[in-house]
Backbone:
């Protein structure tokens, strides 16, 4: 149900909601855009033309109720509205899946930058720990001829990822498989030229100190990397030689202080051509390495 309101009334409402939360302007504007249908240019225009009427896609009272749930209960806005923009996609999200992060968008760029689509066969790839399906969906869209597998041990996450795939018209393009890391892909072992993963990598002792928006609402299954944060990365790297095709690439996201440790794991597992990639803040957050035997 839409609602008419003057620009001046909207600005007054916005000021009131931010009184006790002055740092949360970007979050409130995000909510106004996603649920109210009011983008940044229109919000700017409110300041220039306060008497102009506006049409909000949802009544202000409903937006305000979501806002207070976010402020008082630390519920992530993405869960409250049930969706999250990521790259050029809008993904459905729920507390069963990690809210896809901006830095993870770079993992897709790194995969696309390998030039695998230039070979004679369509790219084959797998995404381990798919969560909302963000990485798998981005690859399937970027490489329409590719064959992809997406794994998660959480049935609820896989169901949501598959639903995201259906909404994007990708039914049948990705095989969604439930289980632990490489295990559900046993029939593909030795045949995968590209595997990427953003596994849980936060050291267990740090979980209690996370921002409550994350700590109290996002699934610990998606965050908890064990004592040193490397448990899942260790398992994934350990299975890589067996599962990757000769010369196949493994692309990993990791915590900002794990670059050296992950490089050592990759080297010890016999992977080659190690590369490190940085996030937008310049932190080493990604590792790339290949199985031996590439052309
Ligand atoms: C950090 S989240 C990443 C989700 C998504 N790929 C993204 O980048 O937003 C890690 C995912 O790994 C899954 N996971 C945790 N342990 C797993 C395991 N042993 N085997 C398979 N998936 C696992 C979690 O359920 C979660 O969806």
Residues:
């Amino acid at each position: 149900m839409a609602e008419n309101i003057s620009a001046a009334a909207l600005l007054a409402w916005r000021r009131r909601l931010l009184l006790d939360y002055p740092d949360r302007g970007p979050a409130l504007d995000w909510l106004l855009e996603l649920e109210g249908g009011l983008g940044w240019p229109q919000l700017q225009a409110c300041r220039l033309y306060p008497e102009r009427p506006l049409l909000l896609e949802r009544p202000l009272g409903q937006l305000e109720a979501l806002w207070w749930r976010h402020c008082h209960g630390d519920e992530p806005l993405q869960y409250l509205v049930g969706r999250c923009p990521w790259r050029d996609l809008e993904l459905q999200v729920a507390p069963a899946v990690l809210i896809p992060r901006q830095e993870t968008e770079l993992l897709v760029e790194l995969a696309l930058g390998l030039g695998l689509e230039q070979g004679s066969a369509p790219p084959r790839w797998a995404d381990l720990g798919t969560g909302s399906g963000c990485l798998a969906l981005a690859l399937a869209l970027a490489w329409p001829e590719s064959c992809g597998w997406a794994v998660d041990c959480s049935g609820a996450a896989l169901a949501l990822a598959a639903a995201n795939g259906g909404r994007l018209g990708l039914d049948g393009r990705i095989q969604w498989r439930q289980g632990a890391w490489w295990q559900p892909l046993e029939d593909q072992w030795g045949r995968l030229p590209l595997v990427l993963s953003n596994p849980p990598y936060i050291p267990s002792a740090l979980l209690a100190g996370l921002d409550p928006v994350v700590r109290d609402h996002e699934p610990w299954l998606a965050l908890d990397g064990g004592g040193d944060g490397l448990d899942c990365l260790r398992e994934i790297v350990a299975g890589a030689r067996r599962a990757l095709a000769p010369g196949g690439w493994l692309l990993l996201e990791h915590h900002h202080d794990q670059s050296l440790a992950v490089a050592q794991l990759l080297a010890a597992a016999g992977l080659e051509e190690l590369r490190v990639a940085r996030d937008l803040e310049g932190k080493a957050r990604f590792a790339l390495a290949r199985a031996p035997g590439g052309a």
Observations:
- The longest strand covers residues 244-253.
- The chain has a mean pLDDT of 95.
- Residues 97-98, 100, 104, 129-132, 134-135, 151-154, 157, 180-181, 198-200, 221-222, 232 surround S-adenosylmethionine (CB under 6 Å).
- The radius of gyration is 21 Å.
